[in-house]
Structure formats: C-alpha cells, structure tokens
Amino acid sequence: MLAALFKEAGKDKGHIPIKGTINGNPFTQTLVKYSGKWRLYLNTPMRQASNSDVGDTVAMQIQFDPADRTVPIHPKLKAALQKNKPANKIYSSLAPSMQKEICRYIYALKTDESIERNIKKAINFLLGKERFIGRDKP
Fold this sequence. Notes:
Number of helices: 6
Distance between the termini: 39 Å
Structural class: alpha+beta
Oligomer: single chain
Number of strands: 4
Radius of gyration: 19 Å
C-alpha cells in the first residue's frame, strides 16, 4: 500500500499529504517518517469524529492528497511586512514551515483587534523583540 502511495506522490521521503476515512469519517492528514517508520498520527478531533480511542481497531482508507495546502499570507500581515522591510526580509528567509505556522496562526484569529495585536507581535518577533507562537526568535 505504501509503495503505491509513494508512486502517486512522486516521493518516498519527507511529509506526504494524504486524505482518507476512519470508520467512514473523512480526514486530511500528513504521513511522516519518524525513527525510520512511517506514521499517521490520529489527533483528538479525528478520533472523536470516528468514535474511536487510543488502542481501538478502526476501518481506515488512505490515499495521496494532491490538493494545494498552501496557507496564504493574511492581507493585513502582508501589508505590515511591506511597511517593515527588515521584518519582511527576515520573514522571507524563514523556512516555509515557519512562514506557514505564522500565517496559520494569524488566520485562526477571530476578531480584527486580535489580528492587529498579533500582527504587531509577529513583526516584533521577526525583529527579535518579543516571543510569538511560543518561540523566542526566528
């Protein structure tokens, strides 16, 4: 099964995006290799939706997911980075996973006030002035 998945993904290293079902409930996740073994981590929402718990036997189907998983940069964050060239330069040099983490965090916020407040924190974080998303400096 993994050989077919790798062939469809065009790779057998790194993270492999997948989609599937657990007990008939759809999910989107990523296969990762850890300590030489491929793993599919079932998070709490996945287990709850499938009515299963740690140690349960489940019916599972998986397949490669070619869908784009790019998290776009929030327009307000983009504007703030354009205004602050040093922060923009640092942001551009970050690993794609860190850029994605910052973007995902900002997009998850609900109110304009929290978005504005956290964009300021993100800029200060990029400039090494304060912590953000549980990290000290980029």
